[in-house]
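Lecture notes, unit on binding sites. The following record was shown on slide 14. It pairs a sequence with S-adenosyl-L-homocysteine.
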Amino acid sequence: MNTNVDPAELAKFSELAHRWWDTHSEFRPLHQINPLRLDWIQGFVPLKDKQVLDVGCGGGILSDAMARAGAQVTGIDLATKSLKVAQLHALETQTPNVSYREVSAEALAAEKPASFDVVTCMEMLEHVPDPASIVQACATLVKPGGWVFFSTLNRNPKSFLFAILGAEYVLNLLPKGTHEYAKFIKPSELANHCRAAGLDVQASKGLQYNPITRRYWLDGNTSVNYMIGTQKAA
Ligand code: SAH
């Protein structure tokens, strides 16, 4: 029995699951940042022929792109509807080498420790009760010397203004209630979880959005949405 899950969070995503692949839906931001994060990851570890796990894969936006980049991808999530959508999309678009499973990161870590060259866990930690437990599971799942990438939202007045007020109430980029401020994670907190799990933080990057041009880009400013790249000791 996995306790590290918030049923209300899964319900939120299940409700929208049929729109995962609609690039003009609530998931537009994820579609728009997808090439940026894929490129950033591949700057550290080219994904071709790698065994990759995508934790909290949702409808498979990143899993699918990583498989198309040549990786053997397993996507996991606990929202049944999202996984069905991900599977159907792979079938319809004939994405090679991607499969999806309904299993928690913690349960898979017990089943298959040290099995993946790369683990990704994007925009997910801020939706779980115990993010440190997910970080630990990712560290267990990756092979020695392998890479684990996380992305989440920073916690400070600016991230409240941009990620909640701006994105949910002013620009309507995301449905109201998508994010809960108290669950946002400071880079220092995430780094602590990583170190405790045996992951060395190698790099971090901020994601920025211009509401006028409606474009995203990466830079060094991690004050709102950010990614980190970590490596397990060889
Ligand atoms: N990683 C994807 C989707 C992010 S949305 C992307 O960046 O494109 C957050 C996802 O986390 C949703 O699909 C939701 O169902 C999933 N999620 C929330 N709690 C979870 C948990 N405890 N275990 C696994 N997935 C979870």
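Take-home: Residues 7-232 form a domain with the Rossmann fold fold (CATH 3.40.50.150).
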